Amino acid sequence: MKIAVVILNWNGILLLEKFLPSLLKYSAEATIYVADNASTDDSISFVKAFFPAVQIVKNDSNLGFADGYNQALKYIDAEIYALVNSDIEVTENWLQPIIKTFESEPNTAIIQPKILDFKRKDYFEYAGAAGGFIDQYGYPYCRGRIFDALEKDIGQYDDHCEIFWASGACFFIRSQVYKDLNGFDGEFFAHQEEIDLCWRAFNQGNKIKYNSESVVYHIGGATLQQGNPKKTFLNFRNSLLMLTKNLPKEQLYKILLGRMLLDGIAGIQFLAQGKPKHFLAVLKAHWSFYGLFMAYYKKRNKFQHTEYYNVKSIVYLYFIRKIIVFNDLFRIK
Q1: Residue 311 phi, psi (nearest 5)
Q2: What string of DSSP letters covers 6-35?
Q3: Sign of CA dihedral 166, 319, 225, 126
Q4: What digits encode the pLDDT tens for the residues 241-281?
């Protein structure tokens, strides 16, 4: 299969220097691209000088993660897009299990590898771990990671299974499916856009898979750190936009109201923790959502699956029941 490994870059020369060598070494089956979001550092000249085999696609401005990929992929011809963060270290044979799955499973549209922490290589990494799910209110969590609780990798997720969403840190998708879905939602800019894309793919009957035979290591937070209020704004706003587009109609307003109440509690917690900028970010996220609601309501497809979640409230299970391990979620009474 014709595979394009596409790395979105913005002023990431140090990350390219560190991680492009492993990509080139272990990706003989693919063509490697750097999609540059109008960097102002020497990223492009560096790649041209030291990695001439890597092809470059230039965007005219910093379009963020979502539209950065949307724009660049218009110029890349491949059957499979492998969208790989610039802070990912790949391993030997990371592509072969993914190719095998796509070849043998025509209904599988999106695949995620096992994502481990680059700094602690025996632990799962926050952004994706061993595959993602959401609860009834749209809160994301993973096999191997619930909120900030990360599990050690002891082989408990060494399998090949269906998941609800795949991490944008290392995201494989059939190019035709990407085009049929019109790619990522550009309004998201960054954060939650891969969950939204997976949800839309799911609503159209596609399967999203996790394959542990492919392993990568992720630094995480190389663009926006966890403590950045902009990250808080994007996560809260984009979650509400995603719910508006993808929830079943009969559940839409009830779930949105519940989610906004939970967001309010989170905002109060930010104040109690002495984080007024994050409290304001939640307020701004809701204000932005109100302005976008009607436009996003019109984006809804004709069909939405009702069974999109496997636990009702991950917030309750984590903060009240104190469950921090994915497999324990299904052992409670």
Answers
A1: -135, 150
A2: EEEESS-HHHHHHHHHHHHHH-TTEEEEEE
A3: negative
A4: 999 999 999 999 999 999 999 999 999 999 999 999 999 99
pTM value is 0.96
pLDDT at 231 over 90: yes
The mean pLDDT value for 38-51 works out to: 97
Is the confidence at residue 199, as pLDDT, over 70? yes
DSSP 186-226: GGG-SSSHHHHHHHHHHHTT-EEEEEEEEEEEE---SSS-T
Which residues in 23-107 belong to E strands, given as ranges? 30-36, 55-58, 80-84, 88-90
CA gap 212, 223 in Å, rounded: 26
CA pair distance 229, 26, nearest whole angstrom: 37
Q: Three-state secondary structure along 256-303?
A: HHHHHHHHHHHHHHHHHCCCHHHHHHHHHHHHHHHHHHHHHHCCCCCC
3-state SS, residue 245: helix
pLDDT at 220: 82
